[in-house]
TrEMBL record:
<feature type="compositionally biased region" description="Polar residues">
    <location>
        <begin position="429"/>
        <end position="446"/>
    </location>
</feature>
<dbReference type="InterPro" id="IPR018306">
    <property type="entry name" value="Phage_T5_Orf172_DNA-bd"/>
</dbReference>
<feature type="region of interest" description="Disordered">
    <location>
        <begin position="152"/>
        <end position="172"/>
    </location>
</feature>
<feature type="domain" description="Bacteriophage T5 Orf172 DNA-binding">
    <location>
        <begin position="233"/>
        <end position="342"/>
    </location>
</feature>
<dbReference type="Pfam" id="PF10544">
    <property type="entry name" value="T5orf172"/>
</dbReference>
<protein>
    <recommendedName>
        <fullName>Bacteriophage T5 Orf172 DNA-binding domain-containing protein</fullName>
    </recommendedName>
</protein>
<feature type="compositionally biased region" description="Polar residues">
    <location>
        <begin position="389"/>
        <end position="404"/>
    </location>
</feature>
<feature type="region of interest" description="Disordered">
    <location>
        <begin position="382"/>
        <end position="475"/>
    </location>
</feature>
<feature type="compositionally biased region" description="Basic residues">
    <location>
        <begin position="447"/>
        <end position="457"/>
    </location>
</feature>
């Protein structure tokens, strides 16, 4: 079997990491194809990547049919790959550029949307000139969005890219990019207050590969439900007109009914909302986590923190939230159908009373594809191998444990216990005691030995007398 080619983060995710201040940029190389390299990149490489994207924005925003005729496009991706790889993986910049080139041809709209959004952030420079942000004259909630409608043809002819605009259109300094400013359908409560904050724009969260999403969903399903995850509640889907077309708010709550509690809070942040779906389900929080993981690449957040939501506690220490649970979908009916499928799965009771997963009910998973079922089966197999290894250690380890529990005695240890003497042996014992020679103990006695003092005028005994006394004693 040949050696597998290295894997890297997706191109939209890598671009997001350049401009997202909430995350510390790491190397784009994936260790063993799944885990990210833990080496953090320097600020110098971050500035270099920013310069590459801004100075080559016009080339990166062209249609894939035009990029096939441009030899400079691949060199731009190579330079960008060198700035996003650490010193250990910089040698793989050609493979990274090849992967990103394929992703660009397959998901051109996704890459173009990410580039346009990131380069339209306040303070970002394109071709050496800062972008002009369009701000309304009156204090109102405004959203700046960029809509690119792509029409692809099966033939090799160049496709046409058209921009749709509804109301007022202003052309920015970027070639081929149109900034559209739309008046909002509703005005949130208290938004006319000059001190209140306004929702300026939304930004996409960091994207993930489909394989990573499936593995995370499988891990979340196999986790036991306990505490907050085990409670029954409601899930809801709301249309948010103030954030633009196709924007929805998804969440869960344990209050009954939710429109008396959550609706008021959401209207305070977004203005009037429209209910699309509300359903009661077991394990509402767990279901919410799974849905947000499945639609991870469709999730958005506010670019600026919401000033209408005041965090509990000390406001100076805590920041206002950005409301991450915002989904952008083109066909809401598909999202509703997917939500209902997951609700039916949780109503079947996939978890026991103890909170563990009932594996027999895994056949009732929503029928989307076999990737999720395969990921769950692989995860359960790995857990079984781990548990069996703990219960049945290797033979060498079992032998060492058995030798500790049951020590082996040799012949030197046999009959160590002395026999009990009888009355017939008393005479022999007393005779042996007379011939017993006691040797001094190797350790000194704790009691101090008293040595008699010799008088000053008394003569010292001679050595000859001592030797004669010793000889007589021995005789």
């Amino acid at each position: 079997m040949g050696k597998k080619s290295p894997m890297f983060d997706t191109l939209p995710y890598t671009i997001d990491m350049v401009y997202n201040e909430d995350y510390s940029a790491t190397c784009a190389y994936r260790v063993k194809g799944t885990d990210n390299c833990a080496i953090h990149l320097t600020k110098r490489s971050l500035k270099e990547a920013n310069h590459i994207l801004t100075s080559n924005f016009s080339d990166l925003s062209k249609h894939p049919e035009e990029q096939r005729r441009s030899p400079a496009f691949f060199r731009i991706l190579q330079n960008f790959a060198e700035s996003r790889l650490c010193h250990n993986h910089a040698k793989h910049f050609d493979q990274a550029a090849s992967q990103w080139c394929d992703e660009y041809h397959q998901n051109y709209r996704d890459v173009a949307d990410t580039l346009t959004r990131c380069l339209a952030l306040p303070g970002t420079q394109v071709h050496g000139a800062p972008l002009k942000a369009t701000t309304p004259m009156k204090p109102q909630v405004s959203v700046i969005s960029v809509e690119l409608d792509e029409r692809e043809c099966d033939s090799d002819d160049a496709s046409s890219v058209e921009t749709e605009q509804d109301e007022e259109v202003e052309d920015s300094d970027i070639d081929g990019v149109t900034t559209i400013e739309k008046p909002l359908c509703g005005t949130p409560r208290g938004i006319l207050d000059p001190e209140s904050a306004e929702i300026r724009s939304i930004q996409r969260n960091l994207t993930m590969s489909q394989e990573t999403i499936m593995n995370r969903i499988a891990s979340k399903i196999c986790q036991p439900v306990e505490g907050k995850s085990s409670k029954k509640g409601w899930i809801y889907l709301l249309r948010v007109p103030s954030l633009g077309q196709g924007m929805y708010k998804f969440g869960h709550t344990t209050s009954e009914p939710p429109m008396h509690d959550r609706w008021v809070k959401h209207e305070k942040c977004y203005g009037p909302v429209q209910e699309i779906l509300t359903s009661m389900t077991p394990c509402a929080y767990r279901l919410e986590q799974i849905i947000l993981l499945e639609f991870r690449n469709n999730e958005y957040q506010l670019q600026e923190p919401c000033k209408q939501c005041k965090s509990s506690g000390n406001e100076s220490d805590k920041k206002s939230p950005r409301h991450h649970e915002l989904l952008r979908v083109e066909k809401v009916e598909e999202l509703k159908e997917r939500l209902n499928q997951w609700v039916f799965f949780f109503r079947d009771g996939p978890y026991r009373k103890s909170g563990t997963l009932n594996r027999k009910l895994l056949e009732n998973l929503p029928p989307k594809d076999d990737g999720l079922k395969q990921a769950i089966q692989d995860l359960l197999k790995s857990k079984r191998r781990t548990s069996s290894a703990k219960k049945n250690p290797p033979s060498s380890q079992r032998q060492s444990q058995a030798s500790v529990r049951n020590p082996i005695f040799t012949d030197s240890h046999a009959n160590v216990r002395p026999q009990t003497p009888t009355a017939e042996d008393c005479a022999g014992i007393t005779s042996n005691l007379q011939h017993l020679h006691l040797s001094p103990s190797p350790t000194q006695s704790k009691a101090t030995r008293k040595v008699p003092r010799r008088r000053a005028n008394s003569p010292r005994p001679s050595k000859d007398k001592d030797s004669t006394k010793t000889a007589s004693a021995s005789n």
